Amino acid sequence: MQRIEDYGLIGDGESAALVSRNGSIDWLAWPRFDSEACFAALLGEEQHGFWRIAADGARPISRRYCEGSLVLEHDFECLDGASYRVIDFMEPRQDDPRLIRQVVGLKGRSRLSLLLRPRFDYGAVKPWLQRTPSGEVRAVAGPHSVILRPPCPVDIGEGDVRAAFEVDEGETINFVLHYEPSHIYTPEPCDPEAALQRTLAYWRGWVAKSRYQGAWGEAVNRSLITIKALIYAPTGGIIAAPTTSLPEQIGGARNWDYRFCWLRDASFSMLSLMNAGYRKEAEAWCEWVLRAMAGEPDEIQPVYGLAGERRLEEREVGWLPGYEGSTPVRIGNGAARQFQIDAFGWIMDTMHQARAFDLELREDDWALQTALLAHLEQVWRRPDEGIWEVRGGPRHFVHSKVMAWVAFDRAVRAVEDLGQQGPVDRWRTLRDEIHREVCAKGYNETAGAFVQSYGDEALDASVLLIPLVGFLPADDPRMVSTVAAIQARLTRDGLVLRYDPQRTDDGLESDEGVFLACSFWLADNLLLQGRREEAEALFDRLLGLRNDLGLLAEEYEPKAGRQLGNFPQAFSHFAIIDTAFNLARRKGAARPNQPRDQASSPDEPADQKA
Is 603 exposed, middle or buried (0-12, 13-18, 19+ CB in 10 A)? Predict the structure, then answer.
C-alpha cells in the first residue's frame, strides 16, 4: 500500500487523478471531480480499478513536476540497468476528457507491461470490453465508457486490458485514454506530443502571472498550481480536495468526501487568489458563491456541489475496504444539512473583500447580503455544529460567534468605508453585543484562553483566527495567553490539533492527526505578536512536511511521519500562500485591522485574515 504522500496529482480543471510513486493511477473520477470513480484502488484493492505501466522489478529513481506545470514525470530503472520515464498529464479540458501517458526510453531497452483495469461505480462494476474497427479498446458500463488508443497490440478479457511492449533509448510511446458517455462515441484523434506542449504552455503561462516575490516562491507557486487544479472550470467552484475517505487516522472512521465546495473556504480563497494576482479566478469564485447562496437565507448550506448543487446525501460504499482498512468509505457529505453560523461570516467577509478589491461581479450581491444579515440577527444566538462540523450535537462555539461578529462588522464597514446603504446603527449595535458576549463567555480564566465553546475549558485551534479576522489584536493579553495555551496543551510535537477528540464530543470515537492549516494560523499569530523568527521556523517546518512534489494533505501524524486525510487539500495550500504573503510583507508583519480597501494596492498584498 502506498502512503498518501506517495501520490502525485494530475488534472484538467474538471476532474483529477492520483498517480502513485510506482507508476500506477489508483484514483480517477470522470468526468467530474465528484463523479463515480473508475479507478478506486486507492480506497481498496487492485480489483477496484487502476492503470499501471511498469517494467517487472523496476525501481523508482525520481519524480518531479515539469517546471511550472501539472505534468508529472516518474523515472524508473530496470533490473538490467535500462531506464525509462513515464510522463502523465491531463490536458486542460477543451472537449472530451483525456488522460495521456508517455513512456520515454532513457537508457538501453526497457521491457514493460501495461494493465488497464477500469471498474466503474467506485470499483463495483466490471465493464464490457470491445475492440473498435479503428483498433481502439472501449470499456462500457451503464452511462460510462473509456476508450484506450494503444500504440501496440493488446489483449482483453475479464474486464482488463493488457499489453507487453518495449521502448528503446530516445523512443517515446504514447497511450491515450478518453472518457465519453456510453451513448456517444465521438472521441477526437489526439496528437499526444502537441497536447503535452499545449498543457505545459497553459500551466507555465498561468503561474507566470503570480506576483509573489518573497523567499518561498517555489512553495507558493506549487500551491497556486494545486489550487488551480482544484477549481471546477465550468463554474469557478473550488473543491476542498479531489478525493474521498482518505482517513484522518489510519484504521479510523473519520473519512469524508471532500469533492465539494465549502463556504468556509471562500475568504481563504479570495485572499490567496487576489494577493497572488489571479483576479479572474477570484471573480469566478465570488460569482459561484453568490449563485450557490441564491434563495432564502434560512436555506444557506455550509457546503455545495461543484455547480451549487444542494443535495449531497451521504452514503457508505460497503464494497470498498477503505484506505489501509479505514472504513467506512463515504460518498456525499452530510455536513450540507448542518447549521453553521460561521458560514454567514465567511460570506460577508468574502463579499467585503470583493468590493474592496473592486472585483467585477455580474450578480447583485448587496440585497442578498442584507437579507442574510436580517436572518443572522434572528439566529446568531442559537447553538450550531461549528467550523469542524461535529456530529455530537450543536453547541455555542466561540468561533461561530466570532464569525457572526465578522458578518456585522463587514456590513458596518461596507456602509462606512465603501458607500453601501443599510441600517448601520443596528448592525453596529449587534456587532458590539456579540463582541461583549464572546469576550465574557468565550474566554475562560481557568484555561487562560479563548476556548471551544461557552462554559467549556477545552481548547480549539479555530480561535487562532480571532486576530486574523480583526476581532482582537494579536497582542491582546487574552490572545497572547490563548496562543501560549494552545502551544502548551493542543499540540503534538509542536504542531497544532484542531481540538482534542478525547475532550470533545464530536460523535466519533477515533483519534486524528494534527490539522495542518491550524499550524499555519499559529505561525500567523506568532508573526503578529512580533515573534518573527518563531513564525518563520514553524513555516519552514510545515513546508518540510510536504511530499517531494510539494503537496500537502489535510492532516499529519508526527509520530508516524506521514500525511493523513484527503489529498491534496485546498485548505492546507491556501494556508501556505497566505502565510508566505504575510512573511513577505515590506513591514514584516500583517495588519489585520487595516481596512482592506486601503491595503489592496496592486503592489502590496491585502491584510491577513482567514
Answer: exposed
Task: Copy the grid coordinates of residue 528.
Answer: 503578529
Q: How far is CA 475 from CA 492, 506, 528, 595, in A?
A: 24, 31, 7, 19
- DSSP-based three-state secondary structure for 165: strand
Cis peptide before 247 (omega within 30 of 0): no
What does the block give as the cell for 6? 506517495
CA distance 123 to 36: 9
How confident is the model at residue 148, as a pLDDT?
96
Tens of pLDDT, residue by residue over 523-570, are 999 999 999 999 999 999 999 999 999 999 999 999 999 999 999 999
The cell for 219 is 512553495
Rounded percentage of the chain residues whose pLDDT exceeds 90 = 87
CA–CA separation, 160 vs 128, rounded Å? 10
Element (H, E) at 417: helix 398-418
At 209, list the grid cell.
Answer: 502571472
Cα–Cα dist 457/482, whole Å: 12
Edge-to-edge strands, sheet with 514-515:
514-515, 555-557, 562-564
Count the Cβ atoms, other than its own, within 10 Å of residue 153: 9
Q: Determine whether 201 is exposed, middle or buried from the number of CB atoms within 10 Å of its CB (0-12, 13-18, 19+).
A: exposed
Sign of CA dihedral 323, 326, 332, 336: negative
Interatomic CA distance for residues 427 and 412, integer angstroms: 6
